[in-house]
Amino acid sequence: MGKYYEQIDGRLREFIEAQHIFFTATAPLSGDGTVNLSPKGLTGSFAVLDERTVAYLDYAGSNAETIAHLRENGRITLMWCAFTGPPNIVRVHGRGEPVFRDDPRFAGLLAAFPGAPVEDHGLRAVIVVHAEQIRDTCGYAVQFMTYDADRDLHGKRFAREDDASLDAYFHKKDHVATSIDGLPGLPLPLPPLRKAAGA
Fold first, then answer.
1. Is 7 helix (H, G, I), strand (E, B) or coil?
2. Which of 4, 6, 42 is nearest to 123 (CA)?
3. How many Cβ atoms sit within 10 Å of the Cβ of residue 184?
4. Domain limits for position 61
5. Cβ(104)–Cβ(137) below 8 Å
């Protein structure tokens, strides 16, 4: 039987922070727009900011659907599944916002991700999600799967890029500055990376 929660704390927070992967779902307002579902979870790239706010690091890729949808309407669902141990699925339904490199809040938000890969993966934004509904369900049908390690391919690919070459990479992609459905995506040109103080 599912349960609703007022905040992300205690065992619920422990469960979320222990998972190696989570999924994000967003969609445009248009009824015939493209729904997007993405896996996330490089080690250290997710953080609980407070009892009703979470955030994750948005890295380089060949599209920016989540960013585009959040810029248009803010709706987002995050989902975690227990692939080991007792069955459980947790969903956070809420409103998300991409905080870009040139935002005054960006460097401060990075402090919530100590030890997370920043430069090597072409960090584009911090996605901040304010929870409106928090719930879990049984997860009885979720298969057992084991975590072996993070793949190193993404880091190897983008570690050789600097700000200028990363911007050029994004300009070459059809669906980074603009989504599949023509919505504004990642703002370009890409601003220089602003790190947290002391990083």
1. coil
2. 42
3. 13
4. 3-172
5. no
pLDDT at residue 196, as a whole number: 59
Q: Is residue 179 part of a domain?
A: no
Total tally of structural domains belonging to the chain: 1
Q: Tally Cβ neighbours within 10 Å of residue 67.
A: 25
Question: What residues form DSSP beta bridges with 77?
Answer: 25, 93
For tokens 């609703």, what's the residue? Answer: 4
- Rounded CA-CA distance 80/135 in Å is 11
- Averaged over successive runs of 10 residues, the pLDDT of the chain (199 residues) comes to 92 96 98 97 95 97 97 98 97 98 96 88 97 96 95 94 96 97 97 69
User: Distance between CA 17 and CA 136 in Å, rounded?
Assistant: 15
Grouping H, G, I as helix, E, B as strand and the rest as coil, residue 59 is: coil
Helix, strand, or coil (residue 189): coil
Q: What is the DSSP letter of 104?
A: T
> What's the CA gap between 123 and 126, in Å, rounded?
8
**Element at 157 (helix H, strand E):** helix 153-159
**What residue has token string 């929870």?**
131
Q: Is the pTM of this model over 0.85?
A: yes
Identify the CATH number of the domain in which residue 167 sits: 2.30.110.10
